Amino acid sequence: MIDSHAVQDMLRALDEFGRAQREIGARLARSMDLPRAGIGILRYLYATAEPVSVGCAAQHLRVDLSVASRQVSALVDAGLVRRTVDDGDRRSRSIELTDLGHARVDELKEHITVLMTDMFADWEPHELSAATDHMAALARTIADHHNEPPASLQVKETFDAKEPV
After folding, report:
1. Distance (Å, whole) CA 126 – CA 129
2. 40, 73 in Cβ contact below 8 A?
3. Tell me, what CATH number does 79's domain have?
4. What is the pLDDT of residues 113-141, one digit of tens each?
5. Cα Rg for the chain, rounded, in angstroms?
6. For the HTH marR-type domain, which residue ranges apply (predicted)?
7. Cα–Cα distance between 149 and 155 in angstroms, integer?
8. Which of 8, 19, 85, 129 lies 20 to 30 angstroms, CA to CA, from 119?
9. How many other β-carbons are positioned within 10 Å of the β-carbon of residue 138?
10. Gap between the Cα atoms of 79 and 100, Å rounded
């Protein structure tokens, strides 16, 4: 059984990590004159290498559709993303990187690599590898359980339907 203090320590560490991630994102966005909130969508579109719906991007980033839609609009306005209409279903719209968007993500990847290499210059390769493995395990665990209520909060019906409630 996991100690509740260990859980609280994990929550504090996750909060700190989230703040650090936002700071890195803000730093990168400022240095590259990109909308910070759209960096995730840019990287996702680059990785998929094909048009996707805004809904798929929202689901991948685990944000509300309205949030992803606003981020996409800012990226479209910046000329980094284009919206396309499906010829088979004119109601269906997709998003994809423009040539400028591809070039900017290439620059972003280089900026991230330089920044992270500098940040972790004092780490040993095995330390970085272990941290990577732990973060991947955390992400998998959280993703696997994000739609399930904790067992302690699940209500089970244990009464006989014939007995008065």
Report:
1. 5
2. no
3. 1.10.10.10
4. 999 999 999 999 999 999 999 999 988 88
5. 21
6. 7-140
7. 10
8. 8
9. 14
10. 7
